[in-house]
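Lab notebook, bench 4. The sequencing result for the construct came back, and we need a structural model before the next group meeting so we can plan mutations. Quick request posted to the team channel:

Model the 3D structure of this chain.
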Amino acid sequence: ARLIGMLRLERNMDIATMAALFDGSRFAPEPLTEAEQAALS
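Done. Here's the predicted structure in C-alpha cell form:
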C-alpha cells in the first residue's frame, strides 16, 4: 500500500500507468485489486 501511495503522490502516476507496471508478470507485482483502484480514484 505504501508503494502504491508513493507512486500516486510523489510521482503523480495515474491508474492506467500503475496497472501497466503491476501486471503480475515475472518480477512485477500482482495486478491492482478493485479496492486498490477505487482508493486511487
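Residues 1 and 36 are 8 Å apart (CA to CA).
Will bring this to the meeting.
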